[in-house]
Amino acid sequence: MAETPRVNHDIDYKIYGEELQFVEIELDPQETAIAESGAMMMMEDGIQMQTIFGDGSTQQSGGFLGKLMSAGKRILTGESLFMTAFTNAVQGKKKVSFAAPYTGKIITLDLQELGGTIIAQKDAFLCAAKGVSVGIHFQRKLGTGLFGGEGFIMQKLEGDGFAFLHAGGFIVERILKPGEVLKIDTGCVVAYTPDVDFDIEFVRGIKNFMFGGEGLFFARMQGPGKVWIQSLPISRLAGRIMQYGTYNRKEEGSLLGGIGNIFDGRE
Fold first, then answer.
1. Residue 218 β-bridge partners
2. What whole-number distance in Å separates Cα of residue 43 and Cα of residue 32?
3. Considering the domain boundaries, does residue 189 fall inside one?
4. Taking burial as the number of CB atoms within 10 A of a residue's CB, which of 55, 78, 106, 119 is the most buried?
């Protein structure tokens, strides 16, 4: 059976690196990739860079006002009004690369194979083929919106092209069978297909509530569908760095404190 032709630009790509990765996208003449501002690492001569409202997808309509309103929704997800489009304006193939903002992994999503829609955490989007719509998704359940780790508003990627997300640490992809339930730390949910039922479950037991150290809520994901999970949310990494940077020994300033710092590698 012949594969359905893509409406979005059909780009080629290669991911480099292990912990600090970047994705290299190869563009045919007049092909375009879109990315968040500041994501570009390098590009070959012949690629034109253009700042655009929103994501430049075909879903933006209604003239300038329609485009402005569509782009304005991106502010709700913590992103800029603008994105950057990179177009191969010459003959022959040209390459442009986009770098991950912190240690972790780049996730490749073929939206054509994933049903056309993915729900992702607000800061996960890195780049995509032109035509992929980067919009917003509102959590309908009150508990999920209040305690789900990402709030009421998440990103929604729609289209039939390739999109690339980035998340911290190691990334696990889980395929959930119908009725199968997976409980996840709320900050570790990177993305999921819209057929997954995403809800919040309260941690039971007074000892778990007070001393468990895992937070008060789990993300409860029920299949069928796919879920992408990160081992190191950037919020957790930032919290540990701040904790280490503001940590003071009781003996600091004394001989014992100085010796302890040497053993810890802080001197």
1. 185, 201
2. 13
3. yes
4. 55
Q: Cα–Cα distance between 74 and 83 in angstroms, integer? A: 10
Which residue is associated with the tokens 């986009």? Answer: 98
Burial class of residue 185 in the structure, from the number of CB atoms within 10 Å of its CB (0-12 exposed, 13-18 middle, 19+ buried): middle
pTM confidence score: 0.78
The two structure tokens encoding residue 150: 């990402």
Tokens standing for residue 199: 């809800």
The letter for the amino acid at 94 is K
What distance in Å separates the CA atoms of residue 151 and residue 139, rounded to the nearest whole number?
8
Sequence-separated (6 or more) residues with CB below 8 Å from residue 250: 257
Query: Where do the H-state alpha helices sit in 164-227?
Result: 206-211
pLDDT tens digit sequence for 130-159: 999 888 877 655 444 444 444 457 889 999
State how many domains the chain has: 1
Model pLDDT, residue 191: 95
Q: How far apart are the first and last CA of the chain?
A: 65
- CB 159 within 8 Å of CB 152: no
CATH code for the domain of 91 = 3.60.160.10
